[in-house]
């Protein structure tokens, strides 16, 4: 069963790579790219699955509730901002380009929380 956990973990990391990589690609001309939005969606879905699998004992690591809560709030902010920006972009409305930077920066914050939380 560790194969399933590791497979979901790889998908989770690919979602993060899509957000951060997409942010670097569009940093000069802030617009939202579809990989950013899909990466944010993948992060939420795979993150919830990973926590469920860890709680079920499929992992050697059991995450702390506070850690999960912080990561979930930041991930929800990333999804919300990317979806709002994408919707405005599709409708042709103007949007604050800093929203795109906020999506990327919050994704990096989530990576830092994942890696540095002790």
> What is the mean predicted local confidence, pLDDT?
93
The main β sheet shows up as: none
Could you state the order of secondary-structure elements as H and E?
Answer: HHHH
Structural class label: mainly alpha
Instruction: Give the N-terminus to C-terminus distance in angstroms.
Output: 26 Å
Number of helices: 4
Low-confidence stretches: none
* Global geometry: elongated
Tell me the Rg in angstroms. 15 Å
Percent helix, as a range, is over 70%
- In what range is the share of β-strand residues? under 5%
Tell how many strands the DSSP assignment holds: 0
List keywords for this structure.
mainly alpha, 0% strand, 4 helices, single chain, elongated, 118 residues
Describe the structure.
With 118 residues, the chain is an all-alpha fold. It has 4 helices and no strands.
In short:
The protein is mainly alpha-helical and 118 residues long. The chain is built from four helices and no strands. Helix content is 78%, strand content 0%.
Question: What's the structural blueprint in terms of helices and strands?
Answer:
Blueprint: H1 2-25, H2 34-55, H3 65-91, H4 98-116
Helix pairs in contact: 1-2, 1-4, 2-3, 3-4
């Amino acid at each position: 069963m560790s194969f399933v956990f590791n497979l979901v973990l790889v998908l989770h990391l690919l979602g993060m790579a899509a957000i951060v990589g997409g942010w670097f690609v569009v940093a000069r001309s802030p617009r939202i790219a579809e990989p950013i939005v899909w990466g944010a969606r993948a992060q939420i879905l795979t993150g919830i699955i990973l926590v469920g699998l860890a709680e079920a004992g499929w992992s050697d690591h059991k995450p702390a509730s506070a850690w999960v809560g912080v990561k979930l709030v930041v991930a929800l902010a990333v999804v919300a901002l990317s979806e709002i920006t994408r919707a405005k972009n599709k409708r042709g409305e103007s949007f604050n380009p800093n929203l795109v930077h906020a999506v990327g920066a919050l994704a990096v914050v989530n990576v830092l929380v994942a890696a540095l939380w002790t």
